[in-house]
């Protein structure tokens, strides 16, 4: 089902050197810096308060830029333009995919690589996803050792992915050595009323603990993965990861925009939080 999407991750290897991972890394849960945190405490958050048109916190977020398909034959070019990613002045980060007059597409991909790398916790975001054939929003994480270990050895946790042709379905997935791409360990979640997830905001989360990852939507848990599910392959999720938010256009998995797809499309993020779940 996702055999071709795996190589989009490989591009990240060229975006940051090994030294970048060690710079500005926020202490993870369980270190001295967070020793006073209790279960249920918010230990880190981004609420995207700020003036309309401003950039998200540059001490936390980096805009990855470029095109070339991102290994998955995607159509967009990611930019650092405020026309593709900006605060809306109402407490949201808005990632906007646009179609230009020449038929090309621009969008945005933001990452905390080298700046914030949590290990464990309830990692959640409240998001209103976009809609339409060929539209692919995602909230996910990659192992902070990506430059050294490569993908999929570094691991990947997809908290939420949606492809526009499935408006009432989101997917939670992990990728690791021996279970990546089309063989990733993945579970779909259907909207309980069968409505489009683009109609309103929803909270997408993973409860991430040593040896366990549980996905939920609006507090409803729908899948837990443990080392027993990797068919004897390495479990690579007990280490720091960084967070990624992006909005892709086209690609082998979602397919491509057609006459029914309207632009611009927007992915609105109300907050991203890490909550102590120890």
From TrEMBL:
InterPro entries: Beta-glucanase-like, ConA-like_dom_sf, Glycosyl_Hydrlase_16. CDD domains: GH16_laminarinase_like. GO terms for molecular function: hydrolase activity. The keyword Signal applies. Residues 33-278 form the GH16 domain. Pfam families: Glyco_hydro_16. Gene3D superfamilies: 2.60.120.200. Keywords: Hydrolase, Signal. It comes from the Bacteria. Belongs to the glycosyl hydrolase 16 family. This is Glycoside hydrolase family 16 protein. It comes from Curtobacterium subtropicum. The lineage of its organism: Bacteria, Bacillati, Actinomycetota, Actinomycetes, Micrococcales.
